[in-house]
Amino acid sequence: MSRISDVFKRPGPKLIPFITAGYPRLNDTVPVVLAAEEAGAAMVEIGLPFSDPLADGPVIQAASQQAIENGVDIGWILSQVEKIRETSSIPIALMGYCNPIFKYGWEQFIAEAVSGGVDGLIIPDLPPEEGANFFARARSAGLTTVLLVAPNTANGRITQLAKLAGELLYAVSILGVTGTAGSGHNTALVEYLGRVREHSTVPFVVGFGISTGAEARSMSQLADGVVVGSALLKKLEQATDPVAGCRKFVNNICESMKDNI
């Protein structure tokens, strides 16, 4: 059983913080991930910085640009996962775009991700049909391929993507980019996540636009996990000590989510 599959078999709400690799400073990645785990994160999503992140809003775009200027590349990111694995077994999913991955060499990327301790991949701009060979190779190597659904995804397509993913779906809460307001507990969102619950054969997390403990608590009633990204990156940018800032922010969100128990 994979680490990702195992964590979603456990009861209770689950927070998945999104952290841009190499942000805000190059050497923050490992201690920030470990701080998030210490504060209660169930899983961590690490973003691979890219100059044209189509699904990301201004906060993550700015973080990606800063990380690129800090000297981040895929090889370096994979080395950071190896360092995390020296002391931690928290599930780690890498979120990135196909351009830099295919430029790096997708077979080499998969092999090094597995050997370095990566658990899953999220590739927003690679449809499962077009990326069939990539996703099949990743799954056969032991990586969880987390596929995305959106509010306009048809019920049959949700079931199809769940079967292709095999372990976990990512439900994008809005038709927009990350960090966009609109993830409140509204009727349309409740109906949409209800459809995902009904038609998915695997657990699913929800993300995009979730920024407060109250929003995370609300979403944790509807999904198996909650992703918080832009709001955390803002805290890291503002904090004198990004590691302490991450620990406090993640702990506050986790404590808010526990109110559902």
Layout of strands and helices, then pairs:
Blueprint: H1 3-7, E1 15-20, H2 29-38, E2 44-47, H3 58-69, H4 74-85, E3 92-95, H5 98-104, H6 106-116, E4 120-122, H7 132-140, E5 144-145, E6 147-149, H8 155-165, E7 169-172, H9 187-199, E8 204-207, H10 213-220, E9 225-228, H11 230-238, H12 242-257
Parallel strand pairs: 1-2, 1-9, 2-3, 3-4, 4-5, 6-7, 7-8, 8-9
Helix pairs in contact: 2-4, 2-12, 4-6, 10-12, 11-12
Q: What integer is the average pLDDT?
A: 92
- The CATH first-level class comes to Alpha Beta
Order of neighbouring strands in the sheet with most strands? 5-4-3-2-1-9-8-7-6
Radius of gyration: 17 Å
What is the SS-derived class? alpha/beta
Unreliable residue stretches: 176-183
Tally the beta strands.
9
Q: Give a quick account of the main beta sheet: strands, pairing sense, barrel closure.
A: 9 strands, parallel
Q: What would CATH call the homologous superfamily?
A: Aldolase class I
- In the CATH classification, which architecture applies? Alpha-Beta Barrel
In DSSP terms (H or I, runs of 4 or more residues), the helix count works out at 12
State the helicity in percent bands.
Answer: 40-55%
How many angstroms does the end-to-end distance come to?
26 Å
The structural domain count equals 1
Topology pattern, helix = H, strand = E? HEHEHHEHHEHEEHEHEHEHH
Envelope shape:
globular
Give your account of this protein's structure:
The model is unreliable at 176-183 (pLDDT under 50). The chain has twelve helices and nine strands. It has one domain (3-260): Aldolase class I (TIM Barrel). By secondary structure, it is of the alpha/beta class. Helix content is 47%, strand content 13%. The relative contact order is 0.17. Helix 2 (29-38) packs across helix 4, helix 2 packs parallel to helix 12 and helix 11 packs antiparallel against helix 12. The protein has a nine-stranded parallel β-sheet with strand order 5-4-3-2-1-9-8-7-6.
